[in-house]
Design brief:
5-stranded mixed beta barrel, alpha+beta, 2 domains, 9 helices
Length: about 240
Amino acid sequence: MINDNIIQVVEILERTAQGVTQPFLCRGDNDALYYAKGRSAGRKSLVAEWLASSLAHEFGIPLAEFAVGEVDEALIDYGAPEVIDLGAGYVFLSKRVDSVMELTWPNVAEIPLTIQTDILMFDYWVRNQDRILTPLGGNPNLLWQPDTRSVVAIDHNQAFDLEFDPDEFFTSHVFAGTWDAVFADMFERQHYEDRFWRAMARFDSICDKMPDSWWYLDDDLPLGFDQAAARTILTECVPNFWSRR
């Protein structure tokens, strides 16, 4: 790992009920508050979270700030019993965003069309099927800031889904309705393909900044999903991007 921006976790405050992974609210050595995912999230989830979040940043998706964090063994040894699920060592940190609520269906129409299409195209590219919202409800993993009328994307841990189903994606994705307008516009298609490749130009650097240990289930057992597999998903997608639906 080549990363000079590791945040030391100095305090584990509480476990949240947010999402399947139930991250821990922690304080970093910069005094900022973060949601931390570690041991119980699983290594594949951490890899997907880091790669997809980093690519989303390069692509221009509005995100909560994120970083690799490090938890000292003492915080686990002397903490509440449940912190064993966070574990010592490297964790994924997502900075807490204040004054937000989960995006609901009535707010979707207030989001600029360009942001909607950016998020849809990006999620399709990285095989992130975990942005579900319809008039009947769902969990879009998007935060809504009422004061600024803006949206923040979180939780990319389900990206690089090896069982990705395009039909299900377009049935449930919160912004699925924006696909047709882009599909019908050759200039917009090229615009997005160019952005995919620009983000891909940072792929090796993104991987280098991630803890090497995340590629392994333990010291000797590979994860079964590696850098080459992630690259294949991203690069094979682009030539067939408009025909996969």
